[in-house]
Design brief:
Layout: E1 2-3, E2 6-7, E3 12-14, H1 23-31, E4 37-38, E5 42-43, H2 44-48, H3 52-56, E6 67-72, H4 76-88, E7 93-98, H5 103-106, H6 118-131, E8 136-143, H7 149-160, E9 165-172, H8 183-192, E10 197-200, H9 206-216, E11 220-223, H10 233-241, H11 251-269, H12 271-281, H13 292-298, H14 305-319, H15 323-328
Parallel strand pairs: 3-11, 4-6, 5-6, 6-7, 7-8, 8-9, 9-10, 10-11
Antiparallel strand pairs: 1-2
Helix pairs in contact: 1-11, 4-6, 6-7, 7-8, 9-10, 11-12, 11-14
Length: 329
């Protein structure tokens, strides 16, 4: 798949997920077969004002490339200036958020509010397109009405402004992440523009992604929540599209990924902060396994890498060799 001049190895894309798709997570997902990884949503204002915390969110390593950084805001000049900074830091794609429905974002005129203010949306896209040379994409929702009319109008505007691809999450602003995604909106956008369209929403298993591609005609699939604890979903999708079927990750693979993810976070964030984060995140990898509740309870108070690894090894040694786990998987 191509987005502008950029060639993507396969047609799977990591969705931006707030608080989740940071650098260590993106590296893990890339290793697991994702074609294009994307950062969590980053404030254009924070970038311009030089916030250390915000600027760290646009850190990137060569191993994750190609990488897309998603920024949000409502002022064309500020978003354009932020995009220039992100481009200078090594981004392969600039993505503009047109879909966030969180109140504190919407009330500033950013996120899904841009789908209502089409004149401002066009000004934003023209300003960013003029400012950067790398591919430009946007991520939209259905809009404010179930009809999907907002999505079709914004898609047309985007294509006219030189946007290189559009990701569509077909839920309305009012739905948030609730209810069922209306894939027909993806089909509608695909029929409206000639640039690549990336479908997003209600992909839980690899087969759902293949169904979306077949049903909507979209060019790629974007997966977010389903990749949390199961980064292998991307390679599973690619295998299905090739006529193969990859089995779920085995026990050894899960535990190896868990340790690598722990180490990557410690290397990037430091031991203290990383261990605090891992108290809730290591549990992602044991979902569905016997005694997973006990494991999640045991990691709630970890304070060191060694302690975390001891708990992981204890769980692994106590259960991985039992036939009950193999049967559970």
């Amino acid at each position: 798949m191509k987005i502008g001049s950029l060639v993507i190895d396969n047609n799977t894309v990591l969705a931006p997920v707030a608080g989740i798709t940071n650098l260590p997570f993106r590296l893990m997902v890339k290793k697991a077969g994702c074609g294009l990884v994307c950062s969590e949503m980053i404030s254009a204002n924070g970038i311009i004002f030089g916030s250390d915390k915000t600027l760290r969110m646009i850190d990137s390593y060569p191993e994750e490339k190609p990488v897309s950084f998603q920024i949000f805001g409502s002022e064309p000049s500020i978003i354009a200036d932020a995009a220039v900074i992100v481009e200078s830091r090594g981004a392969d794609i600039i993505d503009i958020n047109f879909g966030c429905a969180v109140k504190k974002v919407v009330k500033t005129g950013a996120g899904v509010a841009l789908m209502k203010d089409r004149r401002r949306a066009e000004d934003v896209l023209k300003a960013v397109r003029k400012a950067v040379g790398i591919p430009l994409t946007i991520k939209i929702r259905t809009g404010w009405e179930k009809s999907g009319e907002d999505a079709l109008k914004i898609a047309e505007i985007a294509a006219g402004c030189g946007v290189d691809a559009i990701a569509v999450h077909p839920r309305t602003a009012g739905q948030g992440f609730r209810g069922k995604a209306d894939w027909s909106v993806i089909s509608g956008v695909k029929g409206k523009v000639s640039i690549p369209v990336i479908g997003n929403g209600d992909i839980v298993e690899a087969k759902d992604a293949v169904q979306m591609l077949n049903q909507t005609g979209c060019d790629a699939v974007m997966i977010g929540r389903a990749a949390i604890g199961n980064p292998w979903i991307f390679s599973q999708v690619t295998a299905l599209l090739s006529g193969d079927r990859l089995p779920p990750a085995g026990i050894a693979e899960r535990f190896s990924a868990m340790k690598e993810y722990l180490e990557a976070n410690i290397n990037y964030f430091g031991e203290k902060h990383a261990c605090y984060m891992m108290r809730s995140r290591l549990g992602w990898f044991v979902k569905g396994l016997p005694s997973s509740a006990n494991f999640r309870e045991s990691i709630k108070h970890i304070i060191s890498e060694n302690q975390a690894k001891e708990i992981i090894d204890s769980y692994f040694n106590g259960h991985v060799k039992s036939s009950s786990i193999e049967e559970a998987i």
